[in-house]
Automatic annotation (TrEMBL):
Similarity-based family: Belongs to the Dps family.
CDD domains linked: DPS
Protein's name in the database: DNA starvation/stationary phase protection protein
InterPro entries noted in UniProt: DPS_DNA-bd, DPS_DNA-bd_CS, Ferritin-like, Ferritin-like_SF, Ferritin_DPS_dom
Domain of life according to the entry: Bacteria
PROSITE patterns: DPS_1 (PS00818)
GO MF terms, alphabetically ordered: ferric iron binding; oxidoreductase activity, acting on metal ions
């Protein structure tokens, strides 16, 4: 009888604390919802921007939205890898996201950058606050979320630069 290789195994990846699998999945779900909502808010602001720098801010927001969607995909795929099925549907995002909504109105270019910067910072901070507890359960998931925070903090810096603030 041949032994089944690890590569062919249907077992889930082991966690440092296997009893926390559902908790890690739930944390990934919350991050996923925030990232999806952040991308939706970014797109809303993309459509709402007016002013002298509107064109460049409009294009910049497209880049950010694309990167947030990629980050959401990475987070969702990590959840699936752990055996947790994430929910990125609009109803789940609306019910679970902690990202502050924006008013549906035209906004000056600098106001768009300011409003988005605040929200990016809040999402990064919430993820950062949970890194220790997630790392206690699963270092690989912690690493995924460290990369997410790193990218969000880079976006914060890029948004600050748009406002003429010091790096």
């Amino acid at each position: 009888m041949a032994m089944e290789s690890v590569a062919n195994s249907v077992q889930l990846p082991p966690l440092d604390n296997p009893n926390e699998r559902s908790a890690v999945g739930a944390e990934l779900q919350v991050v996923l919802q925030d990232l999806i909502d952040l991308s939706l808010i970014g797109k809303q602001l993309h459509w709402s921007v007016v002013g002298a720098a509107a064109h460049s801010v409009h294009l910049f927001l497209d880049e950010l939205v694309g990167e947030w969607r990629e980050l959401a995909d990475v987070v969702a795929e990590r959840a699936v890898t752990l055996g947790f099925v994430p929910d990125g549907q609009s109803s789940a995002v609306a019910a679970g996201s902690r990202v502050e909504a924006v008013e549906v109105q035209s906004l000056a270019d600098h106001a768009v950058v300011w409003e988005l910067g605040r929200r990016v910072a809040a999402v990064a901070e919430r993820i950062r606050e949970r890194l220790g507890s997630i790392g206690a359960a699963d270092l690989v998931t912690q690493d995924v979320l460290i990369k997410v925070v790193g990218m969000l903090e880079k976006h914060q810096w890029l948004l600050r630069v748009q406002l003429g603030q010091k790096a």
